[in-house]
Each structure stands twice: as structure tokens, then as C-alpha cells.
């Protein structure tokens, strides 16, 4: 969009601000078309930002989502009543099925559009709630920095998500299936496992809400611990600023406060100073060390010098050269090509093999070998068009239970006559 488009959009929104507010808060019935509509309203309808259905205006999902983001942040934005939305969904489904049974196409289409509008409104609301909660957890954007107010905001957010999750109970699959009654369009909008259906969106948001509630619990515990630590630090700081001192020596004499002291310093020899009553423990430790078996000694490995450590020459064996074997189909192919050159008549591979071939080899094996050798020969030459002859495959009709066609003969023809012979045959 250029600057003129943005100015035109702003002008249209400003001139119809009251109407847009009424549309955003309206139900599935929409708002009646104003009698004296201005040109800006017609421009919004032409750009599909507003839907005009039989004299009733409905706000599009684009403007609805834009208004949700522009409105107040956090969890204070206006939300649709899910219980009323469930009742409206049931009414739209009943109206659509009744109009469909009466073959009233216009009424059925109108009920279906209103149903899709309600479903879209619910899915957008759930997505906005999930995004706002996630942004609040990750950034603390727009909330107070005081611990008490932050704890209050966390509890409010957690309670709102819990109440919203409870309100999603009527939208279960067992409740939506009887409403759809097996209709394809209603199942597409309500119960089908697709990204834009109501059931899929609610299942996804339920999982998001459970994860967000767990993160809010952890965030609540973290903020409480930091608040307690901050209060303790403030108390100690105030005690020291008042001119008092901390008697740390008293902690050394209290056995219960020994964990608050740091570790004792080590002597230059690396030994810890032991108390006077540690003689029995030292004697017991020395007795345990005395009962340990002596350490095992590792056997010394004698290194034996090799007699000859210099490089050795490895004899290179010459590979035995064997003549290449002639391909099985090569002499037969040359014989058929020679006969084709002499007579100029097409040569049948099956007839040639029955007359000149080996009776122990089946005809299908001969056709397979001939076709493979011809394709290899054409690939070596650079293409079939460079060979003076070619093959046309004779195939049987399609089998009713299979899509494959059986080749029962290969006809050798000259390349110049190949296309014409195939057309005649």
C-alpha cells in the first residue's frame, strides 16, 4: 500500500468510527445498513472490509483482529460470550439444515456465512488470548514493576485462562458432532481435523492454555521468591544503615548455624585443620587404610627390536587380461539388420527366434534381451535416431484388472519407414 491508500483507509475508518464500534460489539445478526451511507462506507464494502448480506453489515476478520490489537493491551479487551456463541452455533446449524431440506439455497447460504463468522470470531478470540498471555509472560510489557501488583496481575491472568478453559468444555467433539448431524459443510467448519475448523482450533488452544498456566505458576513462584529475598535484603540494609553490626562470631558457636559460615581456610600444606575431638575418626580411617590390599604392580613390557625396519617393496601383480564376451543379442540383431537391408521388409523378432533361435530359451527372454541391447546400443550412439533401424513394439490390449500392457513382438523397421509402418500396423 502506498501513502494515498493509507490516507483513504484512515479517512474511511474515521468517518465510520461509531458504526465500526457497533459492528465490533454486534452479534451474529449484524447491524442494519444505514439509510444515508456515505462514500467511505461503500469503499469499505468494496474492499471486503465489511460484508453486506441482505441489508445487514458484518465486520470482517481483518478489521476485527486489527481492532483487538489496537484496543487496550493485556486481558482487558472485549471478549465474546462463549456460551452465547455456542447457542448461536446450534441455531445456525438448525437453520442451515432446515433451509437445506426445504431447498432454500439463499437461506442456507446466509446461515452458513453467519456460522463461519461466529466460528472465526471464536478462533480469533482464543488466539488473541494465547498471544497476550505469552507476551505477558515473556516481556512484562505494559504491567507494573511493583512485586505486589505484578503478583496480582499474574493471578488475574492465570484465573482468566482457567475460566476460559472451563468455558471451552461445551465445545468438545461429543457436543459438536450431534449439531453437525453428518452434514459435510457443517463438519468442515466444526468437527473436521483441519487447521480452520472449530474443533481443531479449540484443541490447539487448550494445549496452549495448559502450558501457559504452568508457566504462570512458575512465574508466580519466582516472583514470590524474589520478593522475599528483596524484603530480606532491605531489612539487612536498614539494620546496617542504623549503625548496628552483625555478630558473626556467635554463628561459629551455634551448631545449627554452621551451614551459614564459609568453608575453613586451608593450610599451606593442603591439610584442613581438624578439631580436637577428631582423634577417634582419624584412628578409624587409618585402620581402614591399613586393611587395604597392597597395590598391584604393572608388568614391564620388554621392547624387542625388529631385525629389519626399513621399507619393503611390494610386488605389483599384473592383471590378467581376458577378452570381453560378446553380447547375447548382438549376432541375432546383426542378422535381422542384414535381412532387413537385403529385403527391405520389416523383420519380426518372434518369427526370427522361432526359425533361427535356441529352442531352450523362451521367446519372452529373447525379446527382453533384444530390447535391452538395442537401448544400450542407442545410448552409446547418442540416440535412436542415429541408428539405421528401430523397433516397434506390438502390445496386447489393457487387462481389465491391470494397467500394464504385454509386449508380444518387436518389429524391426528402417528409421525412415518406422512411423509409417507403425501407423499402418
Walkthrough of the structure:
- Strand 2 (50-53) and strand 3 (56-59) form a beta hairpin.
- The chain has a three-stranded antiparallel beta sheet. It has a three-stranded antiparallel beta sheet with strand order 4-6-5, sandwiched between helices.
- The chain has 425 residues and is mostly helical.
- The protein has helices at 3-15, 17-24, 39-46, 61-70, 82-101, 105-139, 147-167, 173-180, 184-190, 198-241, 249-253, 279-291, 330-343, 349-356, 363-381, 418-424, and strands at residues 31-32, 50-53, 56-59, 347-348, 389-395, 407-414.
- It contains 16 helices and six strands.
Brief sketch in words of this structure:
With about 425 residues, this protein is mainly α.
